[in-house]
Amino acid sequence: MPSQPHSLNEPPLPLFATSREPAPSAPPAKLPSYIADHRARLRDRFLDGGADAMPDYELLEMVLFRANARTDMKPLARALLDRFGSFDATITAPEAELLKLPRIGRAIVAELKLIEAAAQRLMRARVLNRPVLSSWQALLDYCQTAMAHRDTEQFRILFLDRKNTLIADEPQARGTVDHVPVYPREVVKRALELNASALILVHNHPSGDPTPSQPDIDMTAQVAQAAAALGLTIHDHLVIGKSCEFSFRANGLL
């Protein structure tokens, strides 16, 4: 049988048929035994004794395992702690600051921020849909976890129902390192939309000092006046610092 004519626009057919499947990739390089053994020992110690049995650098090293499976992460864990000072400060450090360090890429940042997000979710679950005034310390712990290490000011509102159960926690505004704009009318408007009966105001001071400024005091008075006109109660205004908080209610400012 005569062969079919070959088009000039088509590549010539191969002399022998070849598979269309790609060649198998080379197997991944085996993890050096000393790194594998070290990681196994850390996991066993963590599972047997929990986080309390481990110093910060080893706990941080375990977090970094997933970001780089082929490299010893102990030097990087120590470098992060040298730079930021503690496990907590490392996990909550701003992404831009983390990326300034050698060997830190987005994969490592993602692992650190995953731990931060998980911690915030766990703390939030302890207060959401529960009576806030009877679990006040849990609320303070949640606010510290969510806001203490932010590098800019954030203003949040905790909305409560008639039984003082937390029904919503919402950031209302973000600002600069020392200022965040707050509009009392927007605060009470959102409370009415949620059918809330009471509010707790919360904002952070990136400087670490929770002492309220005069603008903080003035703003709180304006929000309280707007809320009172609509029958809403302001239980407190909390200013979150690095390691402690300031309560307007406890200090006679509300």
Helix content: 40-55%
Termini distance? 100 Å
- Please tell me the overall pLDDT: 83
Query: Helix count, per DSSP?
Result: 9
Low-confidence segments, given as residue ranges, are 13-23
Question: What's the CATH topology name of the largest domain?
Answer: Cytidine Deaminase, domain 2
Overall strand count: 5
CATH architecture verdict of the largest domain: 3-Layer(aba) Sandwich
Overall 3D shape:
elongated
Structural category is alpha+beta
Strand order of the largest sheet: 2-1-3-4-5
The CATH class name of the largest domain reads Alpha Beta
The major beta sheet can be summarized as: 5 strands, mixed
* The number of domains: 2
List SSEs in N-to-C order: HHHHHHHEEHEHEE
InterPro entries: MPN, RadC_JAB, RuvA_2-like, UPF0758, UPF0758_CS
Family: Belongs to the UPF0758 family.
Keywords: Hydrolase, Metal-binding, Metalloprotease, Protease, Zinc
Pfam families: RadC
